[in-house]
Amino acid sequence: MTESKSMILGCSGHSITPEERSFYQSEQPWGFILFGRNISEPAQIADLVASLRDSVGRDAPVLIDQEGGRVQRIRPPILPHYPSGQALGDIYRKNREQGLRAAWLMSRLHAFDLLKFGINVDCLPVLDVPVEGSSNVIGNRAYGGDPVTVTEMGRAAAEGLKAGGVLPVMKHMPGHGRGFADSHHELPVVTVPRTELEAHDFPPFVALKDELMAMTCHVVFTDIDPANPATTSRKVIDEIIRGHIGFQGLLLSDDTSMNALAGTIGERAANIVAGGCDIVLHCNGVMDEMQQVVRNVPVLTGAALARTKAVEAAFGSNDGADEASIRAEFDAMLAVA
């Protein structure tokens, strides 16, 4: 079998082009990620997922950002519009047990939804803990403004996905909640002391450190590494993510094409690998950018390969719950929230 490379790639449209098929076949990304541009109707989504896997000749992971709220790639009429993390957190703030149940139920519904198309990884939960005045790039995607709420709701969301056979990706490690800029467009710089980060921003990730996958943030933490954002910082990844947080799972970069990162796409990919991420994530499906990425990422080996194998081994478990009853319970909960 051809060895996979340390990358997850997107594609340009509703179906893969002959050029994309040949490219994926020769370059062997470990997995793929879908965005709104890849979505038109149910049969098309399932066909696209199947063709992506067929292009690499194996059951490659297929990811999506299906959070609810404004970050929901598959929308009505294909799938229901789900509430944001903040809306679920509002339920929690009124009644803790109901909030936790709501987070679990919604994730369990995501699993029902996504597996029908063959999508088996959801980039959820958002474990960022926003502070007042921070960029709206996180905003109402967060469950709350305190680490306890975010930890408990994030854990419930992750468990709901796994109960339905979909694996979660925690984001954005070690924390995007203090970013006063949108990292899609510019580089956020966080200047608070490390002790404050350890008290407020890092705890949800510490609590969920045994999850199999996490995504980094393109944020500079000046008290840890003033020169590099977390995604490309060997110090942040070694000392904070692998050290203080204790996460030993598969570490994905946030999107390589986001403008918080400096340099060409190829330079960004090389810096991500050098910083210690296991997987370079490139989302926009632009062929010349993907060609730059593949020239700068290695074949999966060593610890990174072992982590991908652990992820692959975890696919397939399912609690056998009844979708109609789960959906009815969730809808009833929202009706009275």
From TrEMBL:
Gene Ontology biological process terms, A to Z: carbohydrate metabolic process; peptidoglycan turnover
Enzyme class at the top of the EC tree: hydrolase
Pfam families: Glyco_hydro_3
Annotated keywords: Glycosidase, Hydrolase
One example GO MF annotation: beta-N-acetylhexosaminidase activity
Enzyme Commission number(s): 3.2.1.52
Occurrences of domain Glycoside hydrolase family 3 N-terminal (ranges): 25-296
Gene3D superfamilies tied to this protein: Glycoside hydrolase, family 3, N-terminal domain
Keyword Hydrolase in record: yes
Entries under SUPFAM superfamilies matching the protein: (Trans)glycosidases (SSF51445)
Acyltransferase listed as a keyword: no
Reactions catalysed, as given in the entry: Hydrolysis of terminal non-reducing N-acetyl-D-hexosamine residues in N-acetyl-beta-D-hexosaminides
Family from the record: Belongs to the glycosyl hydrolase 3 family.
Protein name: beta-N-acetylhexosaminidase
